[in-house]
Amino acid sequence: MTVTDTAAAEQAMRGDMFAALVLDVALPGGKACHELIQLAKFELPAPIPAVVLVASVFRKTSYKRRPTQLYGADDYVEIHRLGDQLPGKLWHLLGGDPAAMPGLVEAEAVLSTIQDEGDQRLFEQRGRTLRLSELIVADLILYAGDRVLAATTQAEARELLAGDLESARQLFRQINPVPLAPGVDPIGAAFDDMMRMFNLDPGEPR
User: Fold this and answer.
1) Helix axes 104-112, 82-94, angle to 10 degrees
2) Where would I find the H helices in 16-126?
3) Which residues carry this modification: 4-aspartylphosphate (predicted)?
């Protein structure tokens, strides 16, 4: 089953049983990915055994390190490696023999068609300021999760991730070179919106 927003994802998980959840960290909607992971792992009558996060974009930027915080998920995969890595990760987490699992060939065939996604996903959002900034910031939060969870206020989170946010702004300008009005900061605004989903007060850094 494929869904296109967090509300549909929550409804699906509450209405049926699943062996695995593959979660795009930039899935639009009113819930953050860590809330969906919490639901999948701890709040359902039958928890979902395998939860894999998908990094929302692919670009070699300074914040691209191996994530140190998966918010309770079991593993992650970058979007451009879906075709060659995701099947193996799922089979490993589910504890089965890949050769004996039904649907293996079909699943790998589908995933291979989207293996080249990555930068293309960003360029498709050119001119769509809000969605482009959401994609970039969701990706940043995955890779800097340890510092996000260390913050007690939005201001402190901004301070802890200042360098990463600047890299994100540079990436935004590369994809969307149209000058913005003075004082407009789509990356900062998207970051603050996502920090509110972590229940962080605006506050001041400690």
Assistant:
1) 150
2) 33-38, 82-94, 104-112, 119-123
3) 24
